[in-house]
From TrEMBL:
Keyword Cytoplasm carried by entry: no
Transmembrane segments: 40-57
Record-annotated FAD-binding domain positions: 39-395
Cofactor: FAD
Residue segments, region Disordered: 1-32
The protein, known as: FAD-binding domain-containing protein
Gene3D superfamilies tied to this protein: D-Amino Acid Oxidase, subunit A, domain 2, FAD/NAD(P)-binding domain
GO terms of molecular function: FAD binding; oxidoreductase activity, acting on paired donors, with incorporation or reduction of molecular oxygen, NAD(P)H as one donor, and incorporation of one atom of oxygen
Organism whose genome encodes this protein: Purpureocillium takamizusanense
Keyword Cell membrane: no
UniProt keywords, alphabetically: FAD, Flavoprotein, Membrane, Oxidoreductase, Transmembrane, Transmembrane helix
């Protein structure tokens, strides 16, 4: 097992890279019955990496999380997580804290014409206001704060969380997987598994080893690039996505609430309430926080400059926001810019290295699928690893490296596919069949639909319109088990553990 305190226990190998020693007193297993594996290395402390560490810790599986940055990501990204993700947050013991910080109850999501502001169709979320599985609304940065706190306060015995640890290369052999990690930050105090240790000086490279390595390192994943170089099938869309946190009294004055998808061929996007009302003494940031996200195709060719962004933003806001305000009427407190992609790897497992979340697949954010898919990936992967750890499932199938199983289970003898191959195959297929397709449709609905005829041309909007006023039907629609979910514990007896 990897000794997590790389700063103090490294030994230098022939290649000049320090190796963190395997075998740790903290998780020592000499006196315990030997488990099928001992630990997991997780690259990236985003929602996928932290949640995986938490879920593994809840079953007593030790992990080390390596994060390149000195703190969790603060960019303006995910804010809403659908019912399937909410179920996982509860299972992970996170939901109460998330609800306490976020908007407790989101009244509706609707689609509007940007030109007129008129509502075309919507979903009444008030019908599930008392349902424990209802959508969770909380900015990603706040969710990460909660996850970091849980790792440190509740799971310190099993989770070692190391910031300033940038993975540069990963590899594997028969004995395990490893990551070469550049220690950044130039020294200082660091929280480590509930203990504070001193980090190493900058520019040291240390090799961390484990039985399995999971790349949760986001869309620019180093782990993915080590496996597949630049090959990442899919599409990068024209234009950029401009995201801003906004205070504007006009939202409430014009009766807006919840999430509002804006249909338009110039500026299309989502305007959604993202924070509880605050009582700031500063009159410009008094009231609830809103998030305005819009796509700007005219910025397609090059990176849009800061000046261009601000200049065009005034025009976008004038068109999109109720009351068509001038810049003096709202306050923008934070902005982020993104390119938009829908991409997925050919395989989410290569031997002892697995991928989850954005490291494996990305999609445009309309419909709130990215983080939700990441959450469902790691929930499934945690179940698979727990199954192997507890001897309820075999990691690998009947063939060497589990290669046969990765092709697909259909037509094969039952029980031959290892559960880690099942993870890789099923979660990838869920992305390709549902998340990719639906998120593309969601973006087309707002960017390439004529709002004047949307109800005639778009079956989804027609379905929503037909449910309006029918609480029972709406509730059933919102809470049904989604096709993007999969319970891997149902495979425990079928994946060959009994053959081990
Ligand atoms: C504008 C916008 C809005 C969105 N809204 C939603 C939404 O409402 N709902 C939803 O479900 N999804 C949404 N998403 C998508 C969602 O934010 C992502 O899918 C989600 O953050 C993916 O989580 P992750 O943990 O896989 O990756 P990330 O969140 O990207 O985390 C990866 C982590 O790995 C670290 N890392 C990277 N490289 C290395 C390395 N070499 N070594 C060590 N660490 C490394 C990074 O610093 C980062 O902390 C949105 C995205 C955008 C851009």
């Amino acid at each position: 097992m990897t000794e997590p305190s790389a700063a103090t226990n490294g030994v230098r190998g022939d290649d000049g890279v320090e190796t963190a020693s395997r075998g740790s007193a903290r998780h020592g297993s000499e006196t315990k019955k030997k488990k099928p594996f001992e630990n997991v290395l997780i690259v990236g402390a985003g929602p996928a990496g932290l949640l995986l560490a938490i879920l593994l810790a809840r079953s007593g599986i030790p992990s080390t999380v390596l994060e390149a940055w000195d703190r969790p990501d603060e960019r303006l990204r995910a804010t809403q997580y659908g019912v399937p993700a909410t179920r996982v947050f509860r299972r992970a013991g996170l939901l109460d804290d998330m609800r306490a910080r976020g908007i407790d109850s989101f009244p509706y999501i609707c689609w509007r014409s940007a030109r007129t502001g008129e509502r075309i169709a919507g979903i009444d979320l008030s019908v599930v206001a008392d349902e424990p599985d209802r959508m969770t609304v909380l900015p990603l940065s706040q969710m990460l704060d909660i996850m970091v706190r849980h790792c440190r306060e509740r799971y310190a015995e099993h989770v070692t969380l190391l910031f300033n640890h940038k993975v540069e290369r990963v590899g594997q052999d028969d004995a395990g997987a490893w990551a070469e990690v550049r220690l950044l930050g130039g020294g200082g105090e660091e929280e480590e598994g509930g203990r504070t240790t001193t980090t190493a000086a900058a520019d040291r490279v240390v090799r961390f080893g484990a039985d399995y390595l999971v790349g949760c390192d986001g869309s620019k994943s180093t782990v993915r690039q080590c496996l597949f170089q630049r090959h990442w099938p899919g599409e990068t869309f024209a234009g950029q996505l401009l995201v801003q946190n906004v205070y504007y009294k006009g939202f409430e004055e014009h009766g807006w609430d919840g999430g509002n998808y804006m249909i338009d061929d110039e500026f299309w996007g989502l305007i959604a309430k993202r924070g509880k009302a605050n009582n700031s003494s500063n009159s410009t940031t008094n009231g609830p926080l809103w998030r305005v996200t819009y796509g700007d195709l005219r910025s397609a060719a090059d990176e849009i400059s800061e000046e261009e962004h601000i200049r065009r933003r005034a025009a976008a806001f004038k068109k999109l926001l109720p009351g068509h305000p001038d810049p003096s009427q709202y306050t923008v407190t934070q902005t982020s810019r993104f390119r938009i992609h829908n991409r997925c790897v050919d395989a989410m497992r290569v031997g002892r290295v697995l991928l989850a979340g954005d490291a494996a697949h990305v999609c445009n954010p309309f419909g709130g699928y990215g983080c939700m898919a990441a959450v469902l990936d790691v929930d499934g992967l945690a179940d698979c690893l727990v199954g192997v750890y507890e001897g309820k499932a075999a990691a690998d199938g009947g063939t060497a490296e589990g290669a046969e199983g990765a092709e697909g289970k259909e037509g094969k003898e039952e029980g031959k596919e290892g559960i880690l191959d099942a993870y890789a195959r099923i979660r990838r297929q869920k992305f390709v069949d549902f998340v990719d397709r639906r998120s593309r449709k969601n973006m087309d609905r707002i960017a390439r639909t004529d709002p004047d005829t949307a109800l005639e041309t778009d079956p989804f909007l027609r379905l929503l319109k037909s449910m309006e006023g029918n609480a029972e039907r709406t509730k059933e629609f919102l809470l049904k088990v989604s096709s993007i979910e999969f319970d891997f514990t149902t495979l425990y007896s079928k994946t060959g553990a009994e053959e081990e």
